[in-house]
């Protein structure tokens, strides 16, 4: 029984470490994107036509999207693992489920913001632009906002696991 508990603790620690590492990497990539995004001085205008070269933020944005997606999936797996390993079958898991739902909501908003901003940092050819032949630049703070949403998603997922584990411990303490 003790060996099984240690194995569960190791899996939990390993999953949490991977989840936190990927979320922090995604946040870091968002910060780098904010620094490397296309600037107004890079925009070239020829009459009504515009040209914007691809910035480094495009690659970093893709990396941020990949890290946050894998982190969100790993975090949800961690939540499921916490729920299954607690032997806690009650309707009191609603707070943990709401926190996980908040995590997914902030993740989806982050994906939309980062994906759109990243596609705007791709090369915008003369006469093609980003949409309808018009060149667009990403506003200041979009990537930082996406990074904040990554941190909110990570915190919500970790809190949902914490709620599950603590509710389980409280039930086991009352039973003893």
Structure explained in plain terms:
There is one protein chain. By secondary structure, this protein is mainly alpha-helical. The protein has one domain. The protein has four helices and two strands; from the N terminus they run αββααα. It has a two-stranded antiparallel sheet. The two termini are 17 Å apart. The model has no long low-confidence stretch (mean pLDDT 83).
The count of DSSP E runs of length 2 or more, i.e. the number of strands, is 2
Outline the biggest β-sheet: 2 strands, antiparallel
What is the strand content? under 5%
* Order of adjacent strands in the largest pleated sheet: 1-2
Radius of gyration: 21 Å
Number of helices: 4
SS-based structural class?
A: mainly alpha
Low-confidence parts:
none
Termini separation: 17 Å
Provide the number of structural domains: 1
Shape: elongated
Order of helices and strands: HEEHHH
């Amino acid at each position: 029984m003790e060996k099984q508990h240690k194995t569960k603790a190791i899996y939990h620690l390993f999953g949490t470490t991977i989840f936190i590492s990927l979320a922090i990497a995604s946040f870091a990539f968002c910060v780098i994107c904010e620094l490397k995004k296309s600037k107004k001085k890079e925009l070239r205008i020829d009459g009504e036509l515009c040209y914007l070269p691809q910035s480094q933020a495009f690659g970093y944005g893709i990396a941020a999207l990949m890290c946050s997606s894998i982190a969100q999936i790993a975090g949800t797996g961690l939540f499921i693992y916490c729920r299954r390993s607690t032997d806690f079958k009650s309707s009191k898991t609603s707070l943990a489920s709401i926190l996980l739902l908040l995590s997914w909501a902030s993740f989806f908003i982050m994906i939309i913001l980062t994906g759109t901003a990243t596609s705007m940092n791709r090369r915008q050819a003369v006469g093609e632009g980003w949409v309808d032949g018009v060149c667009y630049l990403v506003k200041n703070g979009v990537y930082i906002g996406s990074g904040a949403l990554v941190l909110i998603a990570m915190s919500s997922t970790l809190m949902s696991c914490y709620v599950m584990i603590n509710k389980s411990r409280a039930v086991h303490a009352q039973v003893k």
